[in-house]
From TrEMBL:
BP terms from Gene Ontology: sulfur compound metabolic process
Domain of life: Bacteria
Cofactor(s), names only, from the UniProt record: Mo-molybdopterin
Keyword check for rRNA processing: no
Species this chain originates from: Frigidibacter albus
Keywords per UniProt: Metal-binding, Molybdenum, Oxidoreductase
Annotated Moybdenum cofactor oxidoreductase dimerisation domain residues: 294-413
Protein name stated in the entry: Sulfite dehydrogenase
UniProt key word Metal-binding: yes
């Protein structure tokens, strides 16, 4: 594999009292968050009987399958119209700015299709394994359900995520700059078990994963990865995959670029060399500073972004307690630390991870800040279990130049103004 910039030493950070005790206690000993409540006083919302208490609510049959309440109607995937010629071979973005925790609901997880989201039933579903195997096999959906299965949480990030930001800051919102990612709990059969059932011949070194849609989205995957942790998944977040995410079966390739996670998976061919298909040659290669192209940047390097405050999530409450939060992930392991700065990288302070990092899954971080009401340059910086530190934009450009699109994992800056509004800016 080719090298990414060598930034492997975890930087030392300012260990101010507030920084270290960020989990709860501020410098003065007061609880962070104190001052966020209002003094008790007359309030018609409390003293008057409200409409919702004067009648009855919906019965249990009103929505056999629930949707978000109408007040949350803004928390939806969004498309950037000028990015693609139509909505069929296109992409939309996860509303990461408005979510919390780590699991992305399927209903708002970004979609990327090359020939549209197809409708394929379980009954019509077939998965073939052929090529350099002892016995070519075909599995129905019901067959897959009889293999031992696993449940694991993984992120899927499109290699193009943040790609529009290479040359300068462009899109005003974490949803658009970083929303080509989702993080779901998948249930499925390890690909290894299916390959073992067919019996891989000793010459077999690669697999081709192919989808049932018109684009087929064929990708070559080294046999080593296929036998390691790839999952032939049929459930996400406990329920059937949504059509747009590959119903009834998709491939999970943990930590690797989203393009390899073939949806509507129909065929796995075992071969002795890569197939060099469109998606792995003309697409998803990286143009480097010297003009040459690097192919096969499979692993998604450590990355993070502050989701709030951000352009779509301005601060509306004025100075005082402020929760700064965001997401961090690494395709090479787990997130071990996230640092946050409010002064454009002059002083970094450790954020609090909501839970210990999990391999190749998204971590949520919180930084409990007391905002003095002046403008901030807010950034986050992820560090993973290999010791890799998320690079600045300048560090990444030194190595990759200005002509890349894919695999942009640089540190993101939000300029938060005194009025609480935020803008996408570049701090070089
Ligand atoms: N069969 C098929 N698989 C596919 C694609 C596709 O168009 N067809 N798009 C790929 C790309 S580029 C990405 S980023 C992910 C997106 O998965 P999602 O739509 O579930 O977010 O699916 C990948 N798998
Ligand atoms: Mo993608």
């Amino acid at each position: 594999m080719t090298d990414e910039p060598e930034i492997t030493k975890a930087p030392q950070i300012a260990t101010t009292r507030r920084g270290f005790l960020g989990a709860g206690v501020a410098a003065g000993g007061a609880l962070l968050g104190a001052g966020a409540a209002r003094a008790a006083g007359p309030d018609p919302l409390i003293t008057e009987v409200q409409p919702w208490a004067q009648g009855l609510g919906d019965g249990v049959d009103a929505s056999p399958y629930g949707l978000p309440i109408r007040f949350e109607g803004d928390v939806v995937r969004r498309n950037v119209e000028w990015l693609t010629a139509d909505t069929i071979s296109s992409i939309n973005f996860t509303p990461i700015h408005a979510l919390d925790g780590t699991i992305t609901p399927q209903g708002c997880g970004f979609e990327r299709h090359h020939s549209g989201a197809i409708e394929l039933s379980k009954d019509d579903y077939r998965l073939m394994i052929n090529g350099l195997v002892d016995t070519p096999l075909v599995f129905t959906y019901a067959d897959l359900e009889r293999f031992p299965r696993e449940t694991r949480t993984y992120f899927l990030e499109c290699a193009a995520n943040t790609g529009m930001e290479w040359a300068g800051s462009q899109l005003n919102g974490a949803q658009f700059t970083h929303g080509m990612i989702h993080n779901m709990e998948y249930t499925g059969v390890p690909l290894r078990l299916l390959l073992e059932e067919a019996g891989v011949k000793t010459e077999g070194k690669w697999v081709l994963a192919e989808g049932a849609d018109a684009s087929s989205n064929g990708r070559s995957i080294p046999l080593e990865k296929a036998m390691d942790d790839c999952l032939v998944a049929f459930k996400a977040n406990g329920e059937a995959l949504r059509k747009e995410h590959g119903y009834p079966v998709r491939l999970c390739v943990p930590g690797w670029e989203g393009n390899m996670w073939v949806k509507w998976l129909r065929r796995i061919e075992v071969g002795d060399q890569p197939w060099e298909q469109r998606e792995e040659t003309s697409k998803y290669t990286d143009t480097l500073a010297d003009g040459t192209s690097r192919k096969w940047t499979w692993v998604m390097d450590a990355k993070s972004v502050v989701t709030s405050p951000s352009p779509q999530m301005p601060i509306k409450h004025g100075p005082g307690p402020l929760v700064i939060t965001g997401l961090a992930w690494s395709g090479r392991g787990s997130i071990t630390r996230v640092d946050v700065t409010v002064d454009g990288g002059k002083t970094w302070m450790p954020a609090r991870l909501a839970a210990p990092g999990q391999d190749m899954a998204v971590s949520r971080f919180y930084f409990d800040h007391v905002w003095d009401g002046s403008e901030m340059l807010v950034q986050s910086r992820a560090i993973d279990s290999t010791g890799y530190v998320q690079p600045t934009k300048t560090e990444l450009r030194d190595f990759r130049g200005l002509n890349s699109i894919y695999h942009n994992n640089c540190i993101q800056t939000w300029w938060v103004k005194a009025n609480g509004e935020a803008e996408n800016v570049e701090v070089s």
